[in-house]
Amino acid sequence: MNSSPTCCIVAIRAVLSPSFRRVPAPFEMRILTAVSPTGTKLRFFTYLCGTGRPPATVFGIPIDATGHFKWANEAKGWKMAGHFVTATKAFVSLNSIACGGSKGSTTLTLK
What we know:
Layout: E1 12-16, E2 21-23, E3 29-35, E4 41-49, E5 56-62, E6 68-73, E7 78-86, E8 89-96, E9 102-110
Antiparallel strand pairs: 1-3, 1-9, 2-9, 3-4, 4-5, 6-7, 7-8, 8-9
């Protein structure tokens, strides 16, 4: 089954709750992302770690033909990988040393 996103996805959001974390974090983490109209890249991927910290945003992350995407910035201490399980849901794993060593995964859903 091809689970690549379609043009109708506007934005998906999630909060990485403690139940999803493998390593407890001192901060709540939020993710907001949107898919390009062609479905070939994430227009943006933003994650927010707690309060008082600026959000980290990356633009134009490629989505391959199977719906997988990934990005890493070793210099800033975070990386993420994910894949679309349906046209409106994506599973994402996030590892952020800059966010208290947080590691977590969640399913993002269309909102």
